[in-house]
Amino acid sequence: MVAHVLSLKLRLLANGFKRSVGQLIGVIIGGLYALGMITMLTLAMWFTAGDIPFQSEIFTLIGSAVVLGWAIIPPLLTGVDLTLEPSRFVHFGIPEKTLGPALVLAGFISIPAVLTIAGLLGASLMWRFDAGALMLALLAAVATAVMAILLCQYLVIMATALRAKRRFRELTFVLLFVVLIALGPIVTSALAAAQSMSDWIQPIASVLGYTPLGAFAAIPGAFASAQYGQMAIHLALGLLYLGGLYLLLAPANAKATVTPPPEQRAATAKGLGFFKLMPATPTGAVAARALTYWFKDPRYAIGVLIVPMLPLLFWFTGNQTGSYVMMFLLGPLIGILMGFSISADISYDNTAFALHALTGISGRADRAGRVLSCFLIAIVPVLAAAILPGLISGALWRIPGDLGLSLAGLLIALGVASVSSARYTYSVPLPGDNPMKTPPGNGMRIALTQLGIMLAMGLLLIPVLIPYIIGWVKQSQSFGFITLGAGLAVGIGLMLGGIALGGKWYEKRTPELMQSVILNK
């Protein structure tokens, strides 16, 4: 039975490449990129072996980072391959003692697992001038990969019930997004605070060597420095952690194979919400529904979370370089990003788009309602980002120009998105899915579509950019007011034109749009 489950996993892995040509191309490109990075790491370790400072600590940090990555990303965010979900085998009646080891072994049959093992083996070549340390490093690399994959499987089982809860998925997404955005400033600040590399790398690596994250990875360094007692401690701790993890994973697998997947409860609604605040018109109804999505659908969270994170990033960059020029571009960037976010509005609707198709709502009302909801969300942060930098810095002459370019960016983006979303749809995370999930097989198409939309926004913004740049160079408030007038005129005109043209395309393509969003393509 174990061999049968493993052969099924191999067959599923192979069939996954046959779903579509686009997916196969994406997998090939992604695989080549990953192999290229691993090859570069391997060559770097090979040619710099013996010259790497803090070699033992760096190897420990690499192993710890790999285990930590496997422990966080799949269990909380992306999940793992469906064949690794023991709860999906609850209906088959396979004996627990047979299915448990099969699922554990199946976890190693995946592209990420193979790439992880290859990367760790490549990193271990930094010990090539010490034969004993090299052999221990190769074994430690495999043991670290086993630790990472087993820990991932156990945490996936433990997090299954939590991931079924929408609020937990939203919270983990928000936390990860904030951490990823702030990771650069945090690391840079930590490095700047340390007087030397040894001030932070040695204590951190020393602590990690006694944890499940870096116990195995610390063994070669202890051997190379002739600290055989420490090596024995790291080896004993690693085996203890690995054995304990398997003892936890085995009963967890057994329990999950007889436990049905947790049921999701539908949220209860109270009152009319935004429908009470919007006018009782088709446009108002669409705007109220879209506003509800903005506040309750985590897939819109990226567009909202980027607003407070951009000022922090630009301020940090300016604090490091001494130049705060990027702070003056906050308004246009936030406006464009917020306006661009509704380019996927119809795709996000999925089957709920039937509400628009079956009621026969006009295309103009649909476009205008979605634009109105985004405008209400975006206008306050855009105005604040356009006015506050000039006000705080005392460069009051900049405010009219920054305001004109920011409003133009928002309005033009809304107009272009109104047209593009009626003409082009693409695969997006389904309602309730992880917002960072990318549906397979459409990566290139999505990238090209979004690139074309952004280029169109940039080209249409040129008439406003010209007086803005002249005013910036001459420090002229007069050109700033010209920018403000041009931005309002061009922005409002293109937004209204985009609503009209997008409405016409929407009415002509409603059946096609309905089919596309149902198939999520």
Question: Mind explaining what this structure looks like?
Answer:
It is a single chain. The protein has 521 residues and is an all-alpha fold. The protein has helices at residues 2-15, 21-48, 55-78, 96-106, 111-123, 131-163, 166-193, 198-208, 219-224, 228-256, 282-296, 301-321, 330-340, 345-349, 354-358, 363-393, 399-423, 443-460, 462-474, 477-519. Helix 4 (96-106) packs across helix 10 and helix 17 (399-423) runs antiparallel to helix 19 (462-474).
Can you summarize this structure?
With 521 residues, the chain is mostly helical. The protein contains 20 helices and no strands. It has helices at 2-15, 21-48, 55-78, 96-106, 111-123, 131-163, 166-193, 198-208, 219-224, 228-256, 282-296, 301-321, 330-340, 345-349, 354-358, 363-393, 399-423, 443-460, 462-474, 477-519.
Global mean pLDDT: 81
Main sheet attributes: strand count, strand direction, barrel closure: none
Shape type: globular
Strand tally is 0
Rg (C-alpha, Å): 27 Å
How does the helix and strand content classify structurally? mainly alpha
Total helices: the number is 20
Describe the secondary structure blueprint for this structure.
Layout: H1 2-15, H2 21-48, H3 55-78, H4 96-106, H5 111-123, H6 131-163, H7 166-193, H8 198-208, H9 219-224, H10 228-256, H11 282-296, H12 301-321, H13 330-340, H14 345-349, H15 354-358, H16 363-393, H17 399-423, H18 443-460, H19 462-474, H20 477-519
Helix pairs in contact: 1-4, 2-5, 3-6, 3-8, 4-10, 5-6, 6-10, 7-12, 11-16, 12-13, 13-16, 13-17, 16-17, 16-20, 17-18, 17-19, 17-20, 19-20
